[in-house]
Write a structure and sequence with these properties.
330 residues
């Protein structure tokens, strides 16, 4: 369903956008998030790239996740978009700028890439730990680059409708997209399908894979049963499982409030949304910021859950040697 703004004339409508104090506050917060998250994710990528022993399928997928996080942080429109609205060009130029810079289209690609990468990680760990003898199911270092390629092809394909519906609106004086307060209820089907893909479908995959891993590792002790006796490889597998579960949980903690809110504004009566525009607009900004926070959390989780990344950073630092050998499994 495409939105024609002439069809909105019968509605009491949303107010035209004006720069508010909240824009400046969130711009500062996003700038800090960008500095921290961009630096941390770049360090993670550098550590893996320069440490040959870390060139594993899992680490390559984690690097791909870091790339998604960097794209989200760099293209986050809340950092700068409000500055351009007073001089925003109209017509096709304005629509192009909206699609590529001041809208959420690029971010939806990155989020879809993150979700697909996390799904592949969950499936890969499930096969590695639960079916270790089924080598034909394992993702090899030779094939992971093709998986990464198809992850991004899939992310772009899934996000394509968001590109077509992201445009500069002279009516609202800002760039709008299917996840904007102004359009969500008009593009209800698209919003619901997107949230289901981002949230519910991957959750089923994560829940099944990680429940089986948790049960095997910690409840039934059928996976890495010899770990308590001191086998280092088994302890590494346990740490890796905990790390990936932590990353997935962190993503959902940040995503669920945003996803639930987007569903709410898509399903709610438009007149109620208009009457509560100021409150809902502030809440949308808060939940968008929370979702973006997940892009800076992942490197922190890697640092706390695995000694390999801190050791890898020490190894590539000038005049510094790692205190312990860098583990090739993570």
């Amino acid at each position: 369903m495409s939105v024609n703004e002439t069809d909105l004339n019968s509605f009491r409508d949303f107010k035209k956008y004006t720069i508010e104090r909240a824009d400046l506050v969130f711009a500062v917060l996003y700038s800090l998030l960008l500095i921290v998250g961009f630096t941390a994710n770049c360090l993670l990528i550098t550590v893996v790239r320069k440490t040959k022993s870390m060139h594993t399928t899992t680490n390559i997928l984690l690097v791909n996740l870091a790339v998604s996080d960097i794209v989200i942080l760099l293209w986050c429109p809340r950092t700068y978009s409000f500055v351009f609205y007073p001089i925003y060009p109209s017509g096709k130029t304005g629509d192009y700028i909206c699609k590529m810079f001041t809208g959420n289209a690029i971010i939806t690609v990155a989020i879809a890439g993150s979700v697909l990468t996390l799904s592949v990680l969950a499936i890969e760990r499930y096969h590695a730990l639960m079916k270790p003898m089924r080598t034909e199911l394992r993702l090899t270092i030779e094939h992971v680059k093709y998986v990464v390629f198809f992850i991004w092809i899939g992310a772009i394909s899934i996000s394509f409708p968001n590109f077509s519906e992201s445009n500069y609106s002279q009516r609202y004086g800002r760039c709008v997209c299917p996840f904007s307060l102004e359009y969500a209820s008009l593009l209800r089907t698209h919003v619901i399908c997107t949230v289901v893909f981002w949230g519910f479908v991957p959750f089923v995959v994560f829940a099944y894979c990680y429940f089986q891993i948790i049960r095997g590792l910690f409840l039934g002790h059928t996976v890495c049963a010899e770990a308590p006796s001191g086998n280092g490889d088994d302890r590494t597998k346990q740490r890796l499982a905990k790390l990936l579960i932590s990353v997935t949980v962190a993503f959902y903690v940040c995503f669920i409030p945003y996803g639930a809110f987007i569903l709410y504004i898509a399903l709610e009566d438009r007149r109620k949304l208009i009457s509560n525009q100021e409150t809902l607009s502030l809440l949308l900004r808060v939940f968008e910021f929370l979702l973006t926070c997940s892009s800076s959390l992942n490197p922190v989780l890697y640092a706390f859950r695995s000694s390999n990344y801190p050791d890898g950073f020490k190894a590539i630092s000038p005049n510094t040697l790692p205190s312990t050998p860098v583990d090739s499994h993570l």
